[in-house]
Structures are given as C-alpha cells and as structure tokens.
Amino acid sequence: MFGFTKRRSFPLVLQRDLTECGSACLSMIFKYHGLKNIQQPLREMTAVGASGTTLYHLSEVAERFGFEADGYHLQHFELLREIPLPCIAHYEGNHFVVIYRVKEDHIRIADPAFGKQTLTKKEYYEKCNGVVLTLKPRPDLFQDADVQEILQRTQKRSRSVFRHFYWDTLKPFRGVILAVLITSFVLQMLGLVLPFFTQTILDQVLVHQNRKLLFAILAGLVAVFTLRVGLSYIQNLLLAQFKVQFELNFFSKFFYHFIRLKISYFDAHKREDFINRFHENLKIRGLFSASVLQSFVDFLFSINFLIALYLYNTTLAMLASLIIALYLAVTLVYTPILRRLEDKIFHENLKSMGGFLDTLLGIQTVKLMSLERIKFWKWRSQYRRTLNKVLASERTYLKMNAMLTSLNLFGRLTIYWYGAYLAFDGHITIGQYVAFITIFGMIMISLDSVSSLWFMVTEASVTFTKLNDVLLEEGERADLLVQHKQVVKPDIELHNLTFRYMPGEPEAVLSDLSLRIPYGERVGIVGRNGSGKSTLLKLLVKMYSEYEGSIMVNGVELRDIHPGVLRRAICMIPQDQYFFSGTIKENILYGNPDASMEEVIEAAKLADIHEFISQLYLGYNHMIGESGSNLSGGQRLKIGFARLFLQNPDVIFLDEASSFLDVTSEATIMANLTKHFRGRTILTIAHRLNTLKNMDRILVLDKGQLIEQGSHHALIDHRGLYYDFIKTYVDF
C-alpha cells in the first residue's frame, strides 16, 4: 500500500525549522528503507523543544517503527566502517546529520540543513564527537499496527488540508479561473494570426501586388490588436480581484488555524520561524499575476506551435524540437539545485531574524551590559552567511540564465541559417520561412517566460511546503462532547497525573500526582524553582493535553472538554502578563468584550488601578506600548487583575501574581479578590507568608511530587519541607 521499495541513492530531507534536524535525519533513513511522507508525524513524535531533541529520544521513536537502535561513541574514524549505515551522528555540538557512506579517507553525509556533503578524515575529527546512533531494520519494519495507523492518519490529514485550505478556497473562483483561461486561450489564438498574416503578405500581396487583400489584412490586424488589448485588460482585472480574494480567504484560514494550534507547537518553535512563515505569503502573491498565468498558457500552446512548425517543414521542425528539448533539459537540471539553495536561504534567514529579534527584545540588557559591539558583530557574521547563500543562488540562476540565453541565440541563428538554406533550394517559400521563424521565436519567448515561471514555481513550492508544515499540525480539539456547553462550579480531581514536556524525557515534570480540589476551596502552592507549580496550573487550563493519568472536572475528563468552554470558567494570571497594542480600555475588555464602561471602571477600582488611569491625559483611552512597555511591572499586573475581575470566572489561578506589587497594593487587591470571589476556587502560587496564611490548604511540591499538604499551621506543626522553607526564609 505504501510502496516500501528500497532506493539505490540516499534520499535527502531538509529540515523545515532550526530545531528539526533530528526528525529530518530519521525521515531520511526511513525514506531510504522505503517509507515516504513520514516527516510530519515524526515531528510530532519527536516533539522537539525550542532547544531540539536528543539521540535517546530519536532511538525510542526509531524502535517504535521497527528498527534496532544502538548508540556508540567511536574514538577513531576507522571504526565507522564497522557499524551499520546509514547512521545518525552528533555534529558541531548541537546538530544531527546522517552518515550514509564511508570511504578510506572521507565520508559522505546528508546534512538536513545544507544538503549532501563530503567530509575528510580531518574535518570529521573537527566537526564530529564520535557519538552515533545506528538503526538496523528488524523483520517487522514498518509493520506494527500503530505505525500503520500513524500513516493512515497522516494521509487522511493531508487530504483534509488539501480539501479545506486549497480546494474549498479555490472552488468559489472556478468561474473566474475559467474566464481567465478562456481569455488566455483566445489571446494565444490571436497571437498566431500575425505569422500567418505575414506569410500571406509576402507570398500573396507582394508577389501579386494585391492592394485590396493588403487593406483587408491591415484591417484584420487592427481588429486583432484591439481585441487583444481589451481581453488583456479584462484578464488582468479578473486576476487582480481573484488574487485579493484568494489571499484574504486562504490566509484567514491559515491564521485561524495557526492561533488554534496547541501551545506545545509554539514551545517547540522560535519566533523567527513564525515570522518567516507569514512572510512567505508574499511569494504566493506573485503566482497570481497575469504574466505567470500567461506563461503557463504559453507553455501549453508551445506544443501547438511546435505542431504548426511540422506543417511547414519536418526537417526544420525536428531541428527546432532539438533546441527546445535542450532548453527544457537545462531548466529541469537546475530546478532541484535552485530549490535546495532556496531552502538554505530560508534557514539562514531564520538565523539572521533570530539574532535581530534577540537583540531587539533584549535591548535593555544589551544597553545595561554594553553588548552593542558583541551583538552587532554576531548578527553581521550571520547576515554575511545569509547573503553568501543568496549570492550562491543568484550565481546559479545566472549560470542557468546564461546557458538558456546562449541556447536561445544560437538556436535562432541555426534556424535562420538552415531555414534560409531551405528557402534558397525552394523547399519552402519566403512567406513560410518568415512565418516559421516568427512562430519559432514565439516558442522561444514562451520558453524564456516559462523558465522564469519555473523558478518562481520552485520558490513557491518551498513556500507551500513551509505553510503545509503548519497546516498539517493538529490544533486543539474542537470536535468535543457537545453537551458540555459550560463548566459550572467545577470540582477538580487529579488521579496519578504524570507529565513530561517532551515524550521520552527520563524525568517527569509532574509525577504520580493525585489530589482533589472541591469547588470553593482556596489553595496555595509552594515549592522550589522547577518543582512543577506553574506546569500544574497550565495543565488545569488545558494548555497541554499529552499527560498520563487523568484530570477530572465535575466528573468529566479534561481532554473531553472544549478548551474555550473551560477557559471561560477558569481565569489564570500568569507570571508574565502580555498586553496587546491598543488602549488600556481595550486591554481590560479582553476579560469580557461585552462589558459596559461602568463595569470596566469598577473592575479597575477593584484592581487598584483606576486612580492611576484617571490621572492620564487620555484616561482609559491611553495607548499601551508593545507588551505594555510604557507601564511599570506593578501597573501591568493591576491591569491583568482588572481583566480578571471583569471576566468574573468561577475558578482563579494566580501564578506568582503579586510578585510585582508593593505591600499596600497587594493587600488591597487580595482583600478585594477574597471578597469579590468569596465561595469560588482560588489556586495561587505564592512566595509571601501573608498570602499563604489565608489559604484553606497549602500544597508543597518538590521535584514534581506532592510532598505535603494541609493548612499553614498544620504544616508548621508537621515540621517538614514547608517548615524548612518558612524557617530559613527561602524565596521559593
């Protein structure tokens, strides 16, 4: 069904993001053994973080597909000849490549970032640390039922993406596309009129001095040219409208899908990945121009033109066919080279963008530590590498263009010379000769535009591949139990909850956690850094769904509750409050977009921020800078609390939410919080003793496990870990 046929040459799979070298290496080896189109599920299964994956995790995934995986630390180059190939090797400290051929003094590697390369023995010692992962196929390779299910699910998802994002988007424009194709067809047919009119003038009008026929032909040419101008205008107008509507519809679907992806997808990718992917739509825009469509139609009509040449003279037409074949061969040879170079440019652009964003977002630290020169030269070095890849691509394109131009010129000269020779011998008339070279010239012009089109399509194919990487990702589940339209006064129960951010990690962030939080209880959570406090709250608001055990909300498994329904009942104030560009009022209204101005003011008063806002010149219409950069940490936090009061949820999660507040503000807001949300569930990660004393129960986490729980006084009397925290004043 899936065609597991072993290949002779080693396949190359390029990584799509900076951290996907591991999954790309697995994809290459799987493809070598006959399993294609597997990179997307491998990305999900390797589930890389922003720092990448590990060889250990890659070995687990490979074994699941039917490989016997072994790791080695090879001290000598010669030992590479003793292990099964292909194998995955650790490369340049933070990268993976596939070694697929070993010779006496060099090796061949497939680098998912830069393509196939040859490394000498010296280069191997410089770039590789000797750590390799060998994958030996077992008899049950790719035969496991789970593997077959993964493949079928991938195929189903691919079909769904094509239907929803492409076919359904294009379907409303079928009439426009048909009209554009018809006008292109008519324009091509009108283009054939000129050589035939030229032939008639030379063979009939001039020879017989037929003035009436001359005027008739001239009148016909005027009519043809007028019709061509009108049709071209209509075609361009239709294409302009189609381009705008298609781009709006397609990228609306794309962005809607993008913001509904799981949070784990955003954890696994860097900011520059997302920026570059959205920038890719500019290349798609260029595909929907009249010149591109005309080039496509020109190519189709070139076949008809070529047939017309055979009607004049077979020998001359065969010579023309040879020239055209050579022209197409050069284009096809250079296409994969240009595509690989485009991929390399994409990855280098990601690195350049990453350096720029790191400096921009950390500009305060750059200034405070006088890092301007260091950051500048680091960025400049990377940008130079990016431009070198661009230059390599330009050089390759210029080489191809020079070859095509040479073929075009020498081809025309050959046709002119041989055609004239045939005309001298009387095999064709002068009119036929002129018509022949005119049609041949039209074919070569079409091929020129087709080569440019082919290069653009090559770029666009890379673009669509990048977009498809996002579209094939599964979003948060929307096909959930319809009867759970709302979550009211939820009781929360955890049974043997275990969670890892990356599947296969040896240590869990939360381990075998079981507890019950009845509705209305106020619970404090304490623990050292990295003990899993914030992770627990994120799981309870369904930021992550890939956990072991169960989380029950009013007796319903959390996975079966729509995230939107759940998050309307639960409001979480994280450590890092984010604010969108806009006014203070707009940012508070995100808590409840339907709230009145009076409700916004009341929420601000409860959050102890109304007085500050009133002193501003524009009050609630004061513009907030990017992420609230023109506000203090305490002011941003208070606006976050105003959102909370406006949303008025049943459950409140506070993740160190008072860390930026002074003692007076904290006391005011916490008093308002207790009064306003009396009888509702509050979970708070707190550092301050005054906050913890007022909790009904305190959970003490350590290394992902629940060590102690009870009231403040009970835990002090117990003299355990919580007592040690309080006694030594550890800032946990």
From TrEMBL:
Gene Ontology CC entries for this record: plasma membrane
List where the protein spans the membrane: 173-193, 213-234, 287-312, 318-337, 402-424, 430-457
Q: Which residues form the ABC transmembrane type-1 domain?
A: 178-459
Span of domain Peptidase C39:
15-135
Q: Which residues form a coiled coil?
A: none
- Ranges for domain ABC transporter come to 492-728
Native organism is Sulfidibacter corallicola
Q: Could you tell me which SMART domains the record lists for this protein?
A: AAA
Name of this chain's protein: Peptidase domain-containing ABC transporter
User: What keyword terms does UniProt attach to this protein?
Assistant: ATP-binding, Cell membrane, Hydrolase, Membrane, Nucleotide-binding, Transmembrane, Transmembrane helix, Transport
Q: Name one GO biological process term.
A: proteolysis
Q: Which CDD domains match?
A: ABC_6TM_HetC_like
Task: Please name the InterPro entries in this protein's record.
Answer: AAA+_ATPase (IPR003593), ABC1_TM_dom (IPR011527), ABC1_TM_sf (IPR036640), ABC_transporter-like_ATP-bd (IPR003439), P-loop_NTPase (IPR027417), Peptidase_C39 (IPR005074), Type_1_exporter (IPR039421)
PROSITE patterns documented for this protein: ABC_TM1F, ABC_TRANSPORTER_2, PEPTIDASE_C39
Q: What does the record give as the organism's lineage?
A: Bacteria, Pseudomonadati, Acidobacteriota, Holophagae, Acanthopleuribacterales
- Keyword Nucleotide-binding on entry: yes
Q: Where is this gene product found?
A: Cell membrane
Q: Which Gene3D superfamilies match?
A: ABC transporter type 1, transmembrane domain, Cysteine proteinases, P-loop containing nucleotide triphosphate hydrolases
MF terms from GO for this chain are: ABC-type oligopeptide transporter activity; ATP binding; ATP hydrolysis activity; peptidase activity
